[in-house]
Design a protein that fits this description.
Layout (H helix, E strand, L loop, with lengths): L9 E3 L6 E3 L4 E4 L2 E4 L13 E2 L2 E2 H5 L12 H4 L8 E3 L10 E6 L4 E5 L13 E7 L9 E7 L2 E6 L4 E5 L14 E8 L2 E6 L10 E6 L4 E5 L14 E6 L11 E6 L6 E6 L4 E5 L14 E6 L8 E6 L3 E2 L4 E2 L3 E6 L4 E5 L10 E6 L16 E7 L3 E6 L4 E5 L15 E6 L10 E7 L10 E8 L2 E8 L14 E6 L10 E9 L2 E8 L4 E5 L15 E6 L2
InterPro entries: RCC1/BLIP-II, Reg_chr_condens, Ub_ligase/GEF_domain
Keywords: Repeat
Pfam family, one: RCC1
Length: 544
């Protein structure tokens, strides 16, 4: 293979003092820069400094046109895999594993295996390995979901495959035998919408929207969330009759809030909202606490156009179980409504009827008419975040001792408070934030935010940090937003923050637009993919 031309002329070995021409040490392989020789050779990969310059400084001078037109960040520290295009869906969490998809449609895996899991390898696999998947080379992966002990792969051609735990008809294949290889579930699928792994994570259910607009369910149906008029478990994908929709309307989105005590919500293209299932705290928004096994319109919002919805999960404590289901619906006119029950949120939200988020729930002086809330969500079991158009961020709800609200509080907060910065920053703009949507214990939540200060953007985090999940180089919880040591030149490049794991044993992954992935946190099963099981990892390090 012909060698690539590189603008830096010579490099120096960090150990032996040998010098050589860079162009004789690197070559191009399918657009990726690689080194000649093993790790003991004089290579970019093995040298910390080259003639006094770091690897990153040297690579800045690489002529990208000679290596397939790839950018600098696309050829840095890739190892044997190319850029990553897809992390798992943010709403769901696996049990001690990580999976990603590369731009070349490779499916990569690291972490733990057991008799109920995907069995990609024997025991822990602390290094990323390439896992064959059914339509590799035939159709691209559209959606990757790692949900407790099972995995779903949705392809762009609409085929849906699954594998792993199947004890409660999890995979919808007509039996309850665990599947240690990929099995096809159905086809013509547009979107997969499983129930989040709540307190009963092993009990599971899934809904899908097909390309023709039809809705199908399988798995647990103990409280009738599938809308079939009964509470019978569904062993295979079963079609929902959409006769309750208005003429000319169709399904836009489907949300299932839990894996067993499930409430289901359908948002239509016209913005109508329908609900069904478990309703012990009024989370269906129907002004009562009666379960439903058929979909019913949330008439309190019939004059609104609902565009998005988030819902909290179930919560377990050492003494008893709590099912504080809370729902947030956002409408096209930037109004937001909350209903359900949570003992530690704004009293007005403890209501089986959708309640409008009013200015009186915020600090004095804030007016939505001047600075509308453009995004409001509930994460975990009841932590609320509201982002305004100007970039102000407010929070309330569950905080516990770890302070995931970022408002300098270690107890629950009953009115919205503006976030507080550990470095005393007062003038800021939050550009984006990510919460932990699947935390089933209030003390294990986190928030990550991109914050602009004086025209420079930084990464901040707050919340539980027992295994270094915040990337702050320590394991102390942060109850106010704290700056994460992360390369500022990469902040605008952040595409997604995904938090893998169950309860406190988790690790976040940051995906950049150029395909690099950084991680930190819990690693006892090798879920960081760093070729070891040392834990904790307290600072973000590149894993892919």
């Amino acid at each position: 293979m012909a060698e690539s031309k590189i603008t830096v002329a010579r490099v120096k070995d960090k150990v032996g003092g040998r010098e050589a021409e860079v162009s004789k040490l690197l070559y191009s392989d399918n657009g990726n820069i690689k080194t000649i020789g093993g790790d003991s050779a004089i290579t970019v990969g093995s040298a910390k400094t080259l003639n006094g310059e770091t690897k990153e400084q040297l690579l800045k001078n690489v002529n990208a046109s000679t290596i397939g037109g790839k950018s600098l960040s696309q050829i840095q520290s890739r190892g044997k895999f190319g850029p990553i295009k897809l992390l798992p869906d943010n709403l769901y969490a696996s049990f001690y594993i990580n999976m990603v998809v590369t731009e070349n449609e490779e499916l990569l895996f690291c972490g733990a295996n057991n008799s109920d899991h995907n069995t990609f390898s024997a025991g822990n696999m602390p290094s990323w390995i390439n896992i064959p998947h059914p339509l590799q080379g035939k159709s691209k992966v559209k959606q990757l979901i790692t949900n407790y002990l099972h995995t779903f792969l949705l392809y762009e051609n609409g085929d849906l495959y699954g594998r792993g735990y199947n004890g409660y008809n999890t995979l919808g294949i007509g039996n309850t035998a665990n599947q240690y290889d990929w099995v096809k579930i159905t086809d013509n699928v547009k979107k997969v919408c499983p129930g989040k792994p709540g307190y009963y994570g092993g009990r599971s259910n899934t809904g899908i929207i097909k390309n023709d607009g039809s809705v199908w369910f399988w798995g647990e149906n103990a409280y009738g969330h599938a809308g079939m008029g009964n509470t019978t478990a569904l062993t295979v994908p079963t079609k929902l009759a959409l006769t309750f929709l208005d003429a000319g309307d169709s399904v836009k989105d489907l949300i299932l809030n839990d894996s067993y005590y499930t409430s289901a919500y359908i948002i239509t293209e016209k913005g109508k909202l329908y609900s069904c299932g478990w309703n012990d705290n009024g989370q269906l928004g129907l002004n009562d606490k009666t379960n439903r096994n058929t979909f019913t319109q949330v008439t309190a919002l019939q004059d609104k156009k609902v565009v998005s919805l988030t819902a909290s999960m179930s919560y377990n404590s050492s003494s008893s179980q709590y099912f504080y289901k809370v729902v947030v619906a956002s409408c096209s006119d930037n109004t937001h409504y909350v209903w359900g029950n949570s003992n530690s949120t704004i009293p007005a939200f403890r209501n089986p009827l959708p309640t409008k988020v009013e200015d009186s729930m915020f600090p004095s002086g804030y007016k939505q008419v001047n600075d509308p809330i453009v995004r409001m969500e509930v994460c975990g079991i009841g932590s609320f975040y509201a982002l305004t158009r100007s970039g102000r961020l407010f929070a309330c709800g569950y905080s516990s001792a770890t302070g995931q609200l970022g408002v300098n509080a270690t107890t629950d907060v009953v009115t919205f408070k503006e976030v507080v910065f550990a470095d005393s920053t007062t003038s800021y703009k939050v550009k984006q934030f990510w919460g932990t949507y699947h935390s089933v214990q209030p003390q294990y939540g986190q928030i990550y935010a991109i914050v602009e200060i004086d025209n420079v953007r930084y990464l901040y985090a707050a919340g539980y940090n027992g295994y270094g999940q915040l990337g702050l180089n320590h394991t102390n919880a942060a109850n106010s937003l704290t700056r994460v040591p992360f390369n500022t030149s990469d902040i605008d490049n952040i595409k997604q923050v995904y938090v893998q794991g169950y309860e406190n044993l988790n690790n976040p992954m940051i995906l950049l637009n150029d395909g690099r992935v950084y991680t930190c946190g819990y690693n006892a099963n090798g879920t960081c993919g760093l070729n070891h099981v040392i834990t904790p990892i307290t600072r973000f390090v590149q894993t892919l």
